Amino acid sequence: MTFSFTCKALGGVLMKSSLTQIERRFEISSSLSGIIDGGFEIGNLFVIVFVSYFGSKLHRPKLIGIGSVIMGAGGILTALPHFFMGYYRYSTETNNDAEEDSIATCSVNQTLSFTRTPPEIVEKGCERASESYYWIYVLMGNMLRGIGETPIVPLGMSYIDDFAKEGNSSVYIGTLHAIAMIGPIIGFLLVSVFAKMYVDIGFVDLSTIRITPTDSRWVGAWWLSFLVSGLLSILSSIPFFFLPKNPNIPQKERKISISSHTLKTNKENHQTDNLASHGQRGTIQMSGFLTSMKSILTNHIFIIYLCLTLLHFSSFIGTFTYIFKYIEQQYGQSASEANFLLGMITVPTMAIGMFLGGYIIKKLKLTVIGIGKFSFLTSSVSLLLYVSYYALICENKSIAGLTMTYDGVNQVTSHIDVPLSYCNSDCNCDKSQWEPVCGDNGITYLSPCLAGCKSSGGYQNPNNTVFYNCSCVEASGFQSRNYSVHLGECPRDDDCKRKYYIYIAVQVLQSFCTSIGSSSFIMLLMKNVQPELKSLAMGFHALIIRALGGILAPIYFGALIDKTCIKWSVTNCGARGTCRTYNSTLFGNIYLGLSSSLRFLALIFYVILIYAMKKKYEGKDTKAMENGGKVTDEAKLESLSNNGHLVNETRI
């Protein structure tokens, strides 16, 4: 079970940590990449409720095994577009078929047509424009992964909870999630390694590539990680086909199960014996399904819990989907570095928190109300730590014409057009070009031409190309001998680097507080529904939070993030592509503000949930009212209705 959960977590991490590179490879926006990421939840929606309800009546281990195979096939399908697309062109000026790959500089005598991409290259690029729709295969692969993952969580969790000893389910669940965190660790490390490799590694001469992993156009070998994930998922499916449908049940619980079964009336037994046709059985099953759904939807505690977790999950999924983009844009770190630090520091901390959370619930023998208070406390501390991220937002990058004027003194308030300056007005530069260079004055220019550079050198090593006699560097008042610039954006200042390390430290603490309460999320659900409805309740709960949280959150997070873009790439056909750079201050305020607002609303629902549970259980034996237990009191067995639902004092 842990191997399967590990592979599931591995696949989820790979998609989110590779999302920025997928945007660049397919030249799509963040909102569209959010749809791709939401494809996993879309796949879940197709089958999750029926798998949760009817799956518990079938051979659960085999269903989990089949799901793992489908999940692996989805991972392999996600990687396939790489093998059918042409070579990655990180610039419209780049022509992989050409013998020389030069960068336009400022020349007063040249015309604008010489600085733009030749028409024959544009025409060739438009002929291959259909390749940009290969992202649909990535979406389909992610949807297939979602379908395959469907039986793993609800059936796996109910399989463990149903046959665990009384009081041990929280420990087993916490341990399961803790061990499964190996998946994200492996995923982060895989992406960290593959992100350093150029996307077309093995197919192109890497000595001709003039961009580095810190460049906003860099695309790593994202497809390799999905191949590895797919093969591991298929491998994890093998043991499930050899597990029994029902493990050995302790004798005491077996007797209780038998005594519960004998409560059926003669009329019920007569009806059961006379179910002759498959159609009649299907009708009765559907009737039972609708009755069970009604029982869940009329459970006001479950509805409050559903709203709470929807808000919390939306915040988490939106934050996690774009955390790598946030780190890259806010602190100037490469995807490889961001994945390595999160994988080696944050994820192990979360694993410890998950295990410790389950242990605390068992050790303190918390009631259902106590579990709610414990979860509220951890979520409150997590929110306070999350708000502290505001103090760690860096200032905007110094980019001439986008965030500041070319003299380096005043900030630019409008980013509609790239404002030219007298220092490059005679250069006839293509304003849509994105070939960032860093000046000796610490200012980034969009291209050597827009920096007013007249000459260059160092073509033997494309990464070390330097441009000289740059009039815009001289115009900024910076004193230099050559007024030169070199390829690549200027690095962040020391203050921003210091904020990054503080951010990682706070991220560890915040992740620990969030994870320590994660086990209580599951326990609150299972303790507030009837035992026979746990699988259905978990399935319906997963459906709602995936539909309204897992699908929608990445889309509206991505759409708002797109609003902060100040420089878009231009595709081969002249259309808008992916974002090259953002207003980092506005990006941080929107990214953190939206997530913290959702978390705050979740805390309000926590208060409502605790109040509702206190009102329901006040003056009663809370332990006896928890429906997650395995052993049902004999007095309560007598209150079973004909359809098997608890009534009177045990009905919720």
TrEMBL record:
Molecular function GO terms recorded: bile acid transmembrane transporter activity; sodium-independent organic anion transmembrane transporter activity
Write out the entry's keywords from A to Z.
Cell membrane, Disulfide bond, Ion transport, Membrane, Transmembrane, Transmembrane helix, Transport
**Which SUPFAM superfamilies does the UniProt record give?**
Kazal-type serine protease inhibitors, MFS general substrate transporter
Query: Which GO terms of the cellular component aspect does the record hold?
Result: basolateral plasma membrane
Per the annotation, which location comes first and is thus the protein's main one?
Answer: membrane
Tell me the membrane topology, using the record's own terms: Multi-pass membrane protein
A biological process term (GO) from this entry = monoatomic ion transport
Instruction: Please indicate which superkingdom the organism of origin belongs to.
Output: Eukaryota
**Keyword Transmembrane attached:** yes
Compartments where found: Cell membrane
Against InterPro entries, the record matches this protein to: Kazal_dom, Kazal_dom_sf, MFS_dom, MFS_trans_sf, OATP
Record keyword Nucleotide-binding present: no
State the PROSITE patterns in the record: KAZAL_2 (PS51465), MFS (PS50850)
Task: State the NCBIfam families in the record.
Answer: oat
- Family designation: Belongs to the organo anion transporter (TC 2.A.60) family.
Instruction: Identify this protein by name.
Output: Solute carrier organic anion transporter family member
Name the source organism: Castor canadensis
